[in-house]
Amino acid sequence: MLAPIHHEHPDGKDTESFTCSLLNTHEQVFFLVKVCLNLSDCIPKTHTTIQKFGISNIFFFFSLLCSSRLHIFDKKIQKKNSNIVKYYYNFTILYYITIFTGIFVASYDEDISDAEKVYQECQQSGPLSFSDCIPPARMKHCSKIGEGTFGEVFSTINDSNETVALKIIPVEGNQQVNGEQQKTFGEILHEIIISKELSCLNMKEINKTDGFIGLNNLHCVRGCYPEALLKAWDKFDRQKGSENDRPDFFDSEQLFLILEFEFGGSDLENMNGKLSSLVQAKSVLHQVTAALAVAEQALCFEHRDLHWGNILVKNIKHKHNEFILNGRVHSIETRGVHVNIIDYSLSRLEIDGLTVSCDISNDEELFMGQGDYQFEIYRLMKKENNNCWSTYNPHSNVLWLHYLADKLLSMNYKNKAQTNQQKMLKSALKSFQSEILSYPSATEALMNCRFFQ
């Protein structure tokens, strides 16, 4: 039997918020468990129930914060007190519950591998097949919509016939992919954790935003690249041209992480010539700044790679978008577009004072790029933080806002008429570009820059 537990954080903090911050009290957690137990009789009691019945989707957001915070907490203190680490693994495994089965997943030992952590995040005991993760009914709807050195992005439909995006990343293999070594489980944990934390910001009360792409689910699979995905890859290559290697060389033992995100639209680079005017461009800049500000306040967040390929834009009907910053509700005129920020492979944040970051201090190639202002931003970040990537320097977000203003000024727009409004907006955007670098953070820029008032 579980009983309410009140345990002291090793840094002296109350751990109730640490382990159960999506619920108000422990009693609510136990109520949830009781509900699960009462419903368990009608479902076979197997360790694969989560996958078979898709229950992870129902309680996914309950799992997000607990699991991601667990791993960062472990990384920080495992050398200090292995018993506390074991306690937290045993307690926060609550989200696992092996939902509706009436049993709990076995406790972990103190030393848990990165692979086991990834499988825990995926709520799996081991890798699935591609067909288990993407059934034929969904596979036939797959279309490639994007790519990066990390791998490929496809769109498909979910069980509710809603369009979703699948980011497929090869991991732990020996073969280079797109000129890069494959990510390890340890490296991919960084992106999983940050994706979960930012996705949860749309449910917060003090600092809330829906400006980061929503994470629906994630899976680890093993096998050759499916033929349907290769055909979708070929179609993309014919129509738009791909800079990636055709992913037909993976063998049956290759592992992939598949992150399922909400569909966020087209990236800003591909929206060049498709936005109606600078009126929409201003809304894009305002929404990006607001999202960064909320994440700064909630998580001491830096994106560190916010080029225009990592800003998604989609058309919407509602006229206003609300966000909450330090308890105050604010509203932005959408002008018919909604923005989602994506790709956190270089990002940095803090959870309860514990840092999650990607050390790129030795990535010489990243800082040698030429031909676009984007590459200068990497060098400016490195100069400002003295090549120490664990420290918090929110001015890096300001650097990317300066870059974004530069792109918006150079983009083409559908409405080419030089009305007085367009001329005034262009002048205001140029003033923003001149002014923005003087602010220490996106938060300060949002609250004080004339462009947003």
UniProtKB/TrEMBL annotation:
<keyword id="KW-0158">Chromosome</keyword>
<keyword id="KW-0539">Nucleus</keyword>
<dbReference type="GO" id="GO:0035556">
    <property type="term" value="P:intracellular signal transduction"/>
</dbReference>
<feature type="domain" description="Protein kinase">
    <location>
        <begin position="139"/>
        <end position="453"/>
    </location>
</feature>
<dbReference type="GO" id="GO:0005694">
    <property type="term" value="C:chromosome"/>
</dbReference>
<dbReference type="InterPro" id="IPR024604">
    <property type="entry name" value="GSG2_C"/>
</dbReference>
<feature type="transmembrane region" description="Helical">
    <location>
        <begin position="49"/>
        <end position="66"/>
    </location>
</feature>
<dbReference type="GO" id="GO:0005737">
    <property type="term" value="C:cytoplasm"/>
</dbReference>
<keyword id="KW-0067">ATP-binding</keyword>
<dbReference type="InterPro" id="IPR011009">
    <property type="entry name" value="Kinase-like_dom_sf"/>
</dbReference>
<keyword id="KW-0723">Serine/threonine-protein kinase</keyword>
<comment type="function">
    <text>Serine/threonine-protein kinase that phosphorylates histone H3 at 'Thr-3' (H3T3ph) during mitosis. May act through H3T3ph to both position and modulate activation of AURKB and other components of the chromosomal passenger complex (CPC) at centromeres to ensure proper chromatid cohesion, metaphase alignment and normal progression through the cell cycle.</text>
</comment>
<keyword id="KW-0472">Membrane</keyword>
<keyword id="KW-0963">Cytoplasm</keyword>
<keyword id="KW-0808">Transferase</keyword>
<dbReference type="InterPro" id="IPR017441">
    <property type="entry name" value="Protein_kinase_ATP_BS"/>
</dbReference>
<keyword id="KW-0812">Transmembrane</keyword>
<feature type="binding site">
    <location>
        <position position="167"/>
    </location>
    <ligand>
        <name>ATP</name>
    </ligand>
</feature>
<keyword id="KW-1133">Transmembrane helix</keyword>
<dbReference type="Pfam" id="PF12330">
    <property type="entry name" value="Haspin_kinase"/>
</dbReference>
<dbReference type="GO" id="GO:1901991">
    <property type="term" value="P:negative regulation of mitotic cell cycle phase transition"/>
</dbReference>
<dbReference type="GO" id="GO:0072354">
    <property type="term" value="F:histone H3T3 kinase activity"/>
</dbReference>
<keyword id="KW-0206">Cytoskeleton</keyword>
<dbReference type="GO" id="GO:0005819">
    <property type="term" value="C:spindle"/>
</dbReference>
<dbReference type="InterPro" id="IPR000719">
    <property type="entry name" value="Prot_kinase_dom"/>
</dbReference>
<keyword id="KW-0418">Kinase</keyword>
<dbReference type="GO" id="GO:0000278">
    <property type="term" value="P:mitotic cell cycle"/>
</dbReference>
<dbReference type="GO" id="GO:0005634">
    <property type="term" value="C:nucleus"/>
</dbReference>
<dbReference type="GO" id="GO:0051276">
    <property type="term" value="P:chromosome organization"/>
</dbReference>
<dbReference type="GO" id="GO:0005524">
    <property type="term" value="F:ATP binding"/>
</dbReference>
<keyword id="KW-0597">Phosphoprotein</keyword>
<keyword id="KW-0547">Nucleotide-binding</keyword>
<feature type="transmembrane region" description="Helical">
    <location>
        <begin position="87"/>
        <end position="108"/>
    </location>
</feature>
<protein>
    <recommendedName>
        <fullName>Serine/threonine-protein kinase haspin</fullName>
        <ecNumber>2.7.11.1</ecNumber>
    </recommendedName>
</protein>
